[in-house]
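Quick one - first record:
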Amino acid sequence: MSGVKKYFYFSGLPRSGNTLLSSILNENLDIHATGHSFLPDLFFSMKKTEYNSNRFKNYPCHNNLKNVYKNIIPNYYKNHNVQYIIERGDWITPFNINLLKQVVPNKLKIVILIRDVFEIIKSYLKLCEDNPQFFYNKKYESLDHSTLFTDEIETKVDLIMDKGEYIHTTLYSIYQLKKNNLLKNFLLIDYKDLVSKPKTTIDKIYNYYGIKPFNHSFKNFKKTPIYDDSILGASMHKIMKDKIKKRNYNIELSENIINKYKHLNEILYKWVI
């Protein structure tokens, strides 16, 4: 590796090609593209401790603490001998955007992955169907079924789309970026483009990050992020390693589900135009 290591980021909606994107980028030996990082959780915990610590309030050392924050990411990836770290994480919340602006040594650049909301829902339902121990199945089983007014599929969809769940929080973060005129600073990539025209899409990402183009093969992915999905009850990060292909789900959504959530698709694609 030559020169100073640079740090870029990607985030976005779940089931939108995050693991696939890391696997593609990792074919380039100048890049380390990560799995879903816990660093946003670490920063949040540290900030929470800072705000709540009477000891720190009693003896505040702001410059010292600022040095700690600035060195967390470089030290975390110190042993990766590459030119570019491209980290996946929940970085697009307003809190995390402001934090990254303070700690990233180079210009802040984030790719945001999006996907048709109903395709995301179908992907989750397929995980429910194939994995009895999947956490949304367990959530459903824990409900008092005598109080439910919807069938099993619709109830699970409501759980998936609930406030505080990953889809909702990510859509809210994208809304905040749009509201505050910040979305234009980031690159939005639609899952359908990543799988249907991967070369054009990856070239666009390289251009945005300012990385020299690389001739990807788009098959035989050997450096896929390694997850322990046993804690989730389903293999959520499994990809086809020999090719890029859009997954088709033989799942029909009821008219009630479509009517309940179609506004989210309409709003999402209105935001990104």
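second record:
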Amino acid sequence: MHRKKEFFPSISYYFHIPKFFLNFFLFLFILNNLNSQDFKLYEKETFIFENDTLNYRILKPLNYDSNQKYPVHLVLHGSGERGNDNTSQLTHGGALFLEKENREKYNSWVIFPQCSNNDRWANLKSDTWDVSFKDTVTKPNKSLQLVIRLMDQFIENKQVDKQRIYVSGLSMGGMGTFEILYRRPNMFAAATPICGNGSTEFAYLYANKVSIWIFHGSDDKVVSPKHSLNMATAIIESGGSPKMTLYENVGHGSWDNAFAEKNYLKWIHSKTKNK
């Protein structure tokens, strides 16, 4: 009898373990399915110029009214989301704009373009991110060039509030954010480059025109925080007044911290273009 008392509890425990994990994985499956369903709100689109194609996803304003003009928020992903699936670019930040409260409070167009494989948003020739940018004006890389053309056409042809156009980017996209600012300094009202890098030489082109909130992790080993600090310094020296948040003990994934900021979208949408 003593052995049975020891045996049956062990059998009961054995069967409870898989049941727990089954419930856990069922929860993850349901959660993932819900996210997939939500991401379908981002319509799949392509922009074609001559022989080049840019994939992008677009979220229309909630309860879209063709008689109303809306802000536009451009989001540039990191190097890990490059490709041609027109989906991966939503990995970081895609869910933020789908939250019910955010859609109601900060109703806007949201555009997530996807950089092609073997290309970069910033004017770099290789995936070496922790570098100093050359202070020379050259043509933008093909993917960013397509984004600029897309934005130019979208702003002219859609119901857009031209005083409230925003850009955000993380990692490689943070570099693309700094670059698109100097290539289109009169386009944007606010920008939030996250763990990025850029050319300090061209900060003067947008320092007085665009409100900028820079984010970086102090322990970032992929893109040193010194690059964001250098960009903030260059903007200040050019007469701008950037906001900067440096996260203590945070590595390269500081976009999670930035997107979790309580006033992240509130700050962005409070900005209008400086004339």
